[in-house]
Amino acid sequence: MSLIPKIYGSISSTCTQRVLIVLEELGIDYELISINMRAGVQKSPAYLSEHNPFGVIPAYQDTDTKIFESRAICQYLTVKHGGHLTPPSDPVQVAGFYQAASVEYSYFDPPFKQLAYESLFKSMMGHGEPDASLVSIYQDQIRKCLDYYESILDKQDYLGGTTFSLVDSYHMPWIAFMAVLGLSTELESRKHLRAWWERVEARRSWRSVSGKS
Amino acid sequence: MSLIPKIYGSISSTCTQRVLIVLEELGIDYELISINMRAGVQKSPAYLSEHNPFGVIPAYQDTDTKIFESRAICQYLTVKHGGHLTPPSDPVQVAGFYQAASVEYSYFDPPFKQLAYESLFKSMMGHGEPDASLVSIYQDQIRKCLDYYESILDKQDYLGGTTFSLVDSYHMPWIAFMAVLGLSTELESRKHLRAWWERVEARRSWRSVSGKS
Protein backbone atom coordinates (compact mmCIF):
# COMPACT_ATOMS: atom_id res chain seq x y z
CA MET A 1 0.00 0.00 0.00
CA SER A 2 1.35 3.37 -0.95
CA LEU A 3 2.05 5.77 1.89
CA ILE A 4 0.76 9.35 1.70
CA PRO A 5 3.92 11.45 2.10
CA LYS A 6 4.46 12.65 5.64
CA ILE A 7 6.14 15.97 6.38
CA TYR A 8 7.47 16.34 9.91
CA GLY A 9 7.61 20.08 10.43
CA SER A 10 5.68 23.21 11.27
CA ILE A 11 3.41 25.32 9.10
CA SER A 12 5.06 28.47 10.49
CA SER A 13 8.57 27.34 9.48
CA THR A 14 9.95 28.80 6.25
CA CYS A 15 11.85 25.56 5.50
CA THR A 16 8.67 23.50 5.91
CA GLN A 17 6.72 25.94 3.73
CA ARG A 18 9.34 25.49 0.98
CA VAL A 19 8.50 21.79 0.77
CA LEU A 20 4.74 22.31 1.02
CA ILE A 21 4.76 24.75 -1.93
CA VAL A 22 6.38 22.08 -4.10
CA LEU A 23 3.95 19.38 -2.96
CA GLU A 24 1.06 21.71 -3.78
CA GLU A 25 2.59 22.63 -7.15
CA LEU A 26 2.83 18.93 -8.01
CA GLY A 27 -0.69 18.17 -6.75
CA ILE A 28 0.54 15.59 -4.24
CA ASP A 29 -1.56 14.81 -1.16
CA TYR A 30 0.45 14.91 2.06
CA GLU A 31 0.14 14.74 5.81
CA LEU A 32 1.81 17.48 7.85
CA ILE A 33 2.88 16.06 11.20
CA SER A 34 3.39 18.99 13.50
CA ILE A 35 6.63 19.02 15.47
CA ASN A 36 6.43 20.99 18.70
CA MET A 37 9.67 22.93 18.46
CA ARG A 38 9.15 24.83 21.73
CA ALA A 39 9.04 21.46 23.49
CA GLY A 40 12.23 20.45 21.62
CA VAL A 41 10.73 17.42 19.87
CA GLN A 42 13.14 17.93 16.96
CA LYS A 43 16.03 17.26 19.40
CA SER A 44 14.48 14.11 20.91
CA PRO A 45 16.35 10.80 20.45
CA ALA A 46 13.40 9.38 18.47
CA TYR A 47 13.36 12.28 15.98
CA LEU A 48 17.16 12.34 15.66
CA SER A 49 17.36 8.63 14.87
CA GLU A 50 14.21 8.37 12.76
CA HIS A 51 14.15 11.61 10.80
CA ASN A 52 17.07 14.01 10.98
CA PRO A 53 20.34 13.52 12.91
CA PHE A 54 20.94 17.30 12.85
CA GLY A 55 17.74 17.93 14.84
CA VAL A 56 15.96 20.38 12.57
CA ILE A 57 12.79 20.40 10.50
CA PRO A 58 11.42 19.44 8.03
CA ALA A 59 11.88 15.74 7.39
CA TYR A 60 10.01 13.74 4.76
CA GLN A 61 8.87 10.14 4.45
CA ASP A 62 7.04 8.22 1.75
CA THR A 63 6.78 4.56 0.76
CA ASP A 64 10.21 4.52 -0.88
CA THR A 65 12.39 6.78 1.19
CA LYS A 66 13.14 9.10 4.08
CA ILE A 67 14.94 12.36 3.42
CA PHE A 68 15.74 15.61 5.24
CA GLU A 69 16.94 19.06 4.09
CA SER A 70 14.16 21.10 2.51
CA ARG A 71 15.78 21.82 -0.86
CA ALA A 72 16.86 18.19 -1.21
CA ILE A 73 13.28 17.06 -0.55
CA CYS A 74 12.08 19.48 -3.25
CA GLN A 75 14.60 18.18 -5.78
CA TYR A 76 13.68 14.59 -4.94
CA LEU A 77 9.98 15.34 -5.46
CA THR A 78 10.57 16.84 -8.90
CA VAL A 79 12.66 13.87 -10.03
CA LYS A 80 10.16 11.36 -8.63
CA HIS A 81 7.03 13.02 -9.98
CA GLY A 82 8.24 14.93 -13.03
CA GLY A 83 6.05 17.76 -14.25
CA HIS A 84 6.54 21.47 -14.73
CA LEU A 85 9.13 21.94 -11.95
CA THR A 86 11.68 19.58 -13.52
CA PRO A 87 14.99 21.49 -13.80
CA PRO A 88 16.04 22.43 -17.35
CA SER A 89 18.27 20.16 -19.43
CA ASP A 90 19.66 22.78 -21.83
CA PRO A 91 23.15 23.70 -20.53
CA VAL A 92 22.73 27.47 -20.76
CA GLN A 93 19.40 27.36 -18.92
CA VAL A 94 20.96 24.92 -16.46
CA ALA A 95 23.67 27.47 -15.67
CA GLY A 96 21.07 30.12 -14.83
CA PHE A 97 18.99 27.72 -12.78
CA TYR A 98 21.78 26.30 -10.62
CA GLN A 99 23.47 29.67 -10.23
CA ALA A 100 20.20 31.11 -8.93
CA ALA A 101 19.70 28.13 -6.60
CA SER A 102 23.19 28.61 -5.20
CA VAL A 103 22.77 32.38 -4.77
CA GLU A 104 19.65 31.66 -2.71
CA TYR A 105 21.61 29.28 -0.48
CA SER A 106 24.68 31.53 -0.14
CA TYR A 107 23.43 35.13 -0.13
CA PHE A 108 19.67 35.17 0.37
CA ASP A 109 18.79 32.58 3.01
CA PRO A 110 21.67 33.14 5.51
CA PRO A 111 21.07 36.85 6.26
CA PHE A 112 17.30 36.26 6.49
CA LYS A 113 17.83 33.40 8.93
CA GLN A 114 20.31 35.46 10.97
CA LEU A 115 18.14 38.59 10.95
CA ALA A 116 15.04 36.62 12.03
CA TYR A 117 16.99 35.16 14.94
CA GLU A 118 18.67 38.41 15.99
CA SER A 119 15.64 40.69 15.72
CA LEU A 120 12.81 38.31 16.72
CA PHE A 121 13.58 34.84 18.02
CA LYS A 122 16.56 35.75 20.21
CA SER A 123 14.45 37.65 22.75
CA MET A 124 11.54 35.20 22.38
CA MET A 125 13.93 32.42 23.35
CA GLY A 126 15.29 34.36 26.30
CA HIS A 127 18.73 34.77 24.72
CA GLY A 128 18.89 38.53 25.18
CA GLU A 129 18.10 41.65 23.23
CA PRO A 130 18.94 42.24 19.53
CA ASP A 131 22.44 43.46 18.68
CA ALA A 132 21.77 46.55 16.55
CA SER A 133 25.09 46.30 14.70
CA LEU A 134 24.36 42.70 13.63
CA VAL A 135 20.81 43.64 12.59
CA SER A 136 22.28 46.37 10.40
CA ILE A 137 24.82 44.00 8.81
CA TYR A 138 22.15 41.41 7.94
CA GLN A 139 19.80 44.07 6.57
CA ASP A 140 22.60 45.37 4.32
CA GLN A 141 23.31 41.85 3.05
CA ILE A 142 19.62 41.37 2.26
CA ARG A 143 19.46 44.69 0.40
CA LYS A 144 22.49 43.76 -1.68
CA CYS A 145 20.97 40.43 -2.63
CA LEU A 146 17.61 42.02 -3.47
CA ASP A 147 19.40 44.59 -5.67
CA TYR A 148 20.92 41.69 -7.57
CA TYR A 149 17.50 40.05 -7.95
CA GLU A 150 16.07 43.33 -9.21
CA SER A 151 18.69 43.30 -12.00
CA ILE A 152 17.93 39.67 -12.84
CA LEU A 153 14.16 40.21 -12.90
CA ASP A 154 14.62 43.11 -15.29
CA LYS A 155 15.65 40.49 -17.85
CA GLN A 156 13.50 37.45 -17.00
CA ASP A 157 10.19 36.77 -15.29
CA TYR A 158 11.42 34.25 -12.72
CA LEU A 159 14.53 33.92 -10.57
CA GLY A 160 15.77 30.68 -12.14
CA GLY A 161 14.81 31.39 -15.74
CA THR A 162 11.79 32.08 -17.97
CA THR A 163 9.31 29.91 -16.07
CA PHE A 164 8.35 29.31 -12.45
CA SER A 165 10.80 26.84 -10.90
CA LEU A 166 12.04 25.35 -7.66
CA VAL A 167 14.24 28.42 -7.23
CA ASP A 168 11.21 30.69 -6.91
CA SER A 169 9.61 28.36 -4.38
CA TYR A 170 12.83 28.40 -2.31
CA HIS A 171 12.57 32.19 -1.92
CA MET A 172 8.85 32.64 -1.29
CA PRO A 173 8.63 31.92 2.47
CA TRP A 174 11.22 34.55 3.43
CA ILE A 175 9.84 37.13 1.00
CA ALA A 176 6.43 36.70 2.62
CA PHE A 177 8.09 37.09 6.04
CA MET A 178 9.66 40.47 5.14
CA ALA A 179 6.68 42.38 6.55
CA VAL A 180 7.24 40.75 9.96
CA LEU A 181 10.93 41.73 9.76
CA GLY A 182 10.05 45.36 9.00
CA LEU A 183 11.39 45.10 5.47
CA SER A 184 8.22 45.76 3.44
CA THR A 185 9.67 48.86 1.80
CA GLU A 186 12.57 46.78 0.44
CA LEU A 187 10.04 44.84 -1.61
CA GLU A 188 7.81 47.77 -2.53
CA SER A 189 10.72 49.92 -3.74
CA ARG A 190 11.97 47.35 -6.28
CA LYS A 191 9.50 47.24 -9.15
CA HIS A 192 10.71 44.07 -10.88
CA LEU A 193 10.98 42.17 -7.61
CA ARG A 194 7.54 43.38 -6.57
CA ALA A 195 6.06 42.30 -9.94
CA TRP A 196 7.69 38.88 -9.52
CA TRP A 197 6.21 38.56 -6.04
CA GLU A 198 2.74 39.46 -7.35
CA ARG A 199 3.12 36.74 -10.00
CA VAL A 200 4.22 34.02 -7.61
CA GLU A 201 2.04 34.82 -4.60
CA ALA A 202 -1.02 34.54 -6.88
CA ARG A 203 -0.24 30.87 -7.49
CA ARG A 204 -2.66 28.33 -6.08
CA SER A 205 0.22 26.54 -4.30
CA TRP A 206 1.20 29.62 -2.29
CA ARG A 207 -2.40 30.61 -1.54
CA SER A 208 -2.93 27.13 -0.10
CA VAL A 209 0.27 27.13 2.02
CA SER A 210 -0.07 30.71 3.28
CA GLY A 211 -3.74 30.11 4.04
CA LYS A 212 -2.75 27.43 6.54
CA SER A 213 -0.06 29.41 8.35
CA MET B 1 35.76 29.03 -32.43
CA SER B 2 35.24 27.24 -29.20
CA LEU B 3 36.64 28.92 -26.11
CA ILE B 4 38.71 26.89 -23.66
CA PRO B 5 36.86 27.32 -20.36
CA LYS B 6 38.34 30.03 -18.18
CA ILE B 7 38.25 29.81 -14.41
CA TYR B 8 38.80 33.09 -12.59
CA GLY B 9 40.05 32.03 -9.18
CA SER B 10 43.00 30.90 -7.12
CA ILE B 11 44.59 27.47 -6.86
CA SER B 12 44.75 27.89 -3.07
CA SER B 13 41.00 28.54 -2.75
CA THR B 14 38.87 25.58 -1.72
CA CYS B 15 35.96 26.84 -3.84
CA THR B 16 38.19 27.08 -6.91
CA GLN B 17 39.62 23.62 -6.24
CA ARG B 18 36.06 22.22 -6.18
CA VAL B 19 35.55 23.31 -9.79
CA LEU B 20 38.99 22.18 -10.94
CA ILE B 21 38.40 18.65 -9.59
CA VAL B 22 35.27 18.37 -11.72
CA LEU B 23 37.01 19.73 -14.83
CA GLU B 24 39.81 17.19 -14.31
CA GLU B 25 37.30 14.36 -13.70
CA LEU B 26 35.59 15.23 -16.99
CA GLY B 27 38.88 15.55 -18.88
CA ILE B 28 38.19 19.14 -19.92
CA ASP B 29 41.07 21.47 -20.71
CA TYR B 30 40.84 24.82 -18.93
CA GLU B 31 42.71 28.01 -18.26
CA LEU B 32 43.02 29.14 -14.64
CA ILE B 33 43.17 32.92 -14.52
CA SER B 34 44.63 33.84 -11.18
CA ILE B 35 42.77 36.50 -9.22
CA ASN B 36 44.95 38.43 -6.79
CA MET B 37 42.70 38.39 -3.75
CA ARG B 38 45.13 40.25 -1.49
CA ALA B 39 44.99 43.12 -3.99
CA GLY B 40 41.17 42.89 -3.93
CA VAL B 41 40.77 42.21 -7.65
CA GLN B 42 37.59 40.22 -6.89
CA LYS B 43 36.03 43.44 -5.57
CA SER B 44 37.06 45.57 -8.57
CA PRO B 45 34.29 47.12 -10.71
CA ALA B 46 35.46 45.10 -13.73
CA TYR B 47 35.28 41.75 -11.90
CA LEU B 48 31.95 42.61 -10.26
CA SER B 49 30.32 43.53 -13.56
CA GLU B 50 31.95 40.87 -15.72
CA HIS B 51 32.13 37.82 -13.48
CA ASN B 52 30.48 37.87 -10.06
CA PRO B 53 28.41 40.71 -8.56
CA PHE B 54 29.02 39.30 -5.05
CA GLY B 55 32.79 39.78 -5.41
CA VAL B 56 34.03 36.29 -4.67
CA ILE B 57 35.80 33.55 -6.60
CA PRO B 58 35.58 31.40 -8.65
CA ALA B 59 33.79 32.50 -11.78
CA TYR B 60 33.59 30.49 -15.02
CA GLN B 61 33.33 31.36 -18.69
CA ASP B 62 33.10 29.29 -21.84
CA THR B 63 31.77 29.86 -25.35
CA ASP B 64 28.15 29.51 -24.28
CA THR B 65 27.91 31.01 -20.87
CA LYS B 66 29.25 32.76 -17.81
CA ILE B 67 28.43 31.41 -14.38
CA PHE B 68 29.54 31.88 -10.76
CA GLU B 69 29.06 29.84 -7.56
CA SER B 70 31.34 26.80 -7.43
CA ARG B 71 28.69 24.10 -6.96
CA ALA B 72 26.52 25.62 -9.69
CA ILE B 73 29.50 25.57 -12.07
CA CYS B 74 30.06 21.89 -11.22
CA GLN B 75 26.41 21.00 -11.87
CA TYR B 76 26.48 22.93 -15.14
CA LEU B 77 29.59 21.06 -16.27
CA THR B 78 28.02 17.67 -15.60
CA VAL B 79 24.86 18.54 -17.50
CA LYS B 80 26.84 20.01 -20.40
CA HIS B 81 29.39 17.23 -20.72
CA GLY B 82 27.58 14.18 -19.31
CA GLY B 83 29.79 11.33 -18.17
CA HIS B 84 30.26 9.52 -14.89
CA LEU B 85 29.45 12.49 -12.64
CA THR B 86 25.88 12.89 -13.92
CA PRO B 87 23.54 12.86 -10.89
CA PRO B 88 21.37 9.74 -10.54
CA SER B 89 17.87 9.57 -12.03
CA ASP B 90 16.44 6.84 -9.79
CA PRO B 91 14.34 8.65 -7.13
CA VAL B 92 15.74 6.76 -4.12
CA GLN B 93 19.32 7.38 -5.22
CA VAL B 94 18.37 10.97 -5.99
CA ALA B 95 17.20 11.43 -2.41
CA GLY B 96 20.56 10.28 -1.06
CA PHE B 97 22.50 12.39 -3.52
CA TYR B 98 20.67 15.68 -2.96
CA GLN B 99 20.43 15.14 0.80
CA ALA B 100 24.21 14.68 0.91
CA ALA B 101 24.75 17.76 -1.26
CA SER B 102 22.57 19.82 1.05
CA VAL B 103 24.25 18.51 4.21
CA GLU B 104 27.58 19.63 2.74
CA TYR B 105 26.20 23.12 2.13
CA SER B 106 24.44 23.41 5.52
CA TYR B 107 26.58 21.56 8.07
CA PHE B 108 30.00 20.84 6.55
CA ASP B 109 31.11 23.91 4.62
CA PRO B 110 29.96 26.71 7.01
CA PRO B 111 31.91 25.65 10.14
CA PHE B 112 35.02 24.95 8.02
CA LYS B 113 34.79 28.39 6.42
CA GLN B 114 34.22 30.04 9.82
CA LEU B 115 37.00 28.08 11.52
CA ALA B 116 39.48 28.88 8.76
CA TYR B 117 38.70 32.58 9.11
CA GLU B 118 38.72 32.63 12.90
CA SER B 119 41.84 30.56 13.45
CA LEU B 120 43.95 31.52 10.42
CA PHE B 121 42.85 34.30 8.11
CA LYS B 122 41.59 36.72 10.77
CA SER B 123 45.04 37.47 12.13
CA MET B 124 46.61 37.26 8.65
CA MET B 125 44.18 39.98 7.55
CA GLY B 126 44.93 42.12 10.60
CA HIS B 127 41.44 41.67 12.06
CA GLY B 128 42.66 40.54 15.49
CA GLU B 129 43.41 37.33 17.32
CA PRO B 130 41.24 34.17 17.22
CA ASP B 131 38.28 33.99 19.61
CA ALA B 132 38.83 30.67 21.42
CA SER B 133 35.13 30.19 22.20
CA LEU B 134 34.19 30.56 18.52
CA VAL B 135 37.00 28.21 17.48
CA SER B 136 35.63 25.64 19.91
CA ILE B 137 32.06 26.01 18.59
CA TYR B 138 33.13 25.53 14.97
CA GLN B 139 35.32 22.54 15.85
CA ASP B 140 32.36 20.91 17.62
CA GLN B 141 30.13 21.50 14.60
CA ILE B 142 32.75 19.91 12.35
CA ARG B 143 33.07 16.89 14.66
CA LYS B 144 29.31 16.40 14.68
CA CYS B 145 29.17 16.49 10.89
CA LEU B 146 32.11 14.09 10.55
CA ASP B 147 30.40 11.70 12.99
CA TYR B 148 27.40 11.72 10.68
CA TYR B 149 29.62 11.03 7.66
CA GLU B 150 31.27 8.16 9.52
CA SER B 151 27.83 6.56 9.95
CA ILE B 152 26.98 7.11 6.27
CA LEU B 153 30.30 5.70 5.05
CA ASP B 154 29.75 2.58 7.15
CA LYS B 155 26.95 1.76 4.68
CA GLN B 156 28.21 3.10 1.35
CA ASP B 157 31.57 3.87 -0.27
CA TYR B 158 30.90 7.48 -1.24
CA LEU B 159 29.12 10.41 0.41
CA GLY B 160 26.41 10.76 -2.23
CA GLY B 161 25.85 7.06 -2.97
CA THR B 162 27.61 3.96 -4.27
CA THR B 163 29.89 5.74 -6.76
CA PHE B 164 32.13 8.81 -6.76
CA SER B 165 30.00 11.89 -7.40
CA LEU B 166 29.92 15.67 -7.32
CA VAL B 167 29.18 15.44 -3.61
CA ASP B 168 32.57 13.87 -2.91
CA SER B 169 34.32 16.52 -4.96
CA TYR B 170 32.53 19.25 -2.97
CA HIS B 171 34.09 17.96 0.27
CA MET B 172 37.63 17.19 -0.82
CA PRO B 173 39.26 20.64 -0.59
CA TRP B 174 38.30 21.18 3.07
CA ILE B 175 39.17 17.61 4.07
CA ALA B 176 42.63 18.14 2.59
CA PHE B 177 42.86 21.42 4.54
CA MET B 178 42.15 19.73 7.89
CA ALA B 179 45.86 19.27 8.58
CA VAL B 180 46.41 23.03 8.33
CA LEU B 181 43.51 23.57 10.74
CA GLY B 182 45.03 21.16 13.27
CA LEU B 183 42.24 18.63 12.72
CA SER B 184 44.22 15.65 11.37
CA THR B 185 43.22 13.40 14.27
CA GLU B 186 39.53 13.96 13.40
CA LEU B 187 40.18 12.25 10.10
CA GLU B 188 42.54 9.58 11.40
CA SER B 189 40.20 8.53 14.21
CA ARG B 190 37.24 7.78 11.93
CA LYS B 191 38.03 4.60 9.99
CA HIS B 192 35.28 4.79 7.36
CA LEU B 193 35.92 8.47 6.68
CA ARG B 194 39.67 7.81 6.46
CA ALA B 195 39.09 4.93 4.03
CA TRP B 196 36.85 7.19 1.91
CA TRP B 197 39.56 9.86 1.88
CA GLU B 198 42.18 7.32 0.78
CA ARG B 199 39.86 6.27 -2.07
CA VAL B 200 39.17 9.80 -3.31
CA GLU B 201 42.59 11.37 -2.81
CA ALA B 202 44.06 8.61 -5.01
CA ARG B 203 42.01 9.83 -7.97
CA ARG B 204 43.93 11.35 -10.84
CA SER B 205 41.75 14.49 -10.66
CA TRP B 206 42.74 15.25 -7.07
CA ARG B 207 46.40 14.41 -7.62
CA SER B 208 46.43 16.91 -10.47
CA VAL B 209 44.67 19.70 -8.52
CA SER B 210 46.58 19.21 -5.27
CA GLY B 211 49.85 19.01 -7.21
CA LYS B 212 49.30 22.57 -8.41
CA SER B 213 48.41 24.11 -5.05
UniProtKB/TrEMBL annotation, chains A, B:
InterPro entries: Glutathione-S-Trfase_C-like, Glutathione-S-Trfase_C_sf, Glutathione_S-Trfase, Glutathione_S-Trfase_N, GST_C, Thioredoxin-like_sf. It is an enzyme of class 2 (transferase). Residues 3-85 form the GST N-terminal domain. GO terms for molecular function: glutathione binding; glutathione transferase activity. GO terms for biological process: glutathione metabolic process. PROSITE patterns: GST_CTER (PS50405), GST_NTER (PS50404). The keyword Transferase applies. It comes from the Eukaryota. It catalyses: RX + glutathione = an S-substituted glutathione + a halide anion + H(+). Keywords: Transferase. Its EC number is 2.5.1.18. The keyword Transferase applies. Residues 90-213 form the GST C-terminal domain. One of its GO terms (cellular component) is cytoplasm. SUPFAM superfamilies: GST C-terminal domain-like, Thioredoxin-like. Belongs to the GST superfamily. This is glutathione transferase. It comes from Aspergillus brasiliensis (strain CBS 101740 / IMI 381727 / IBT 21946).
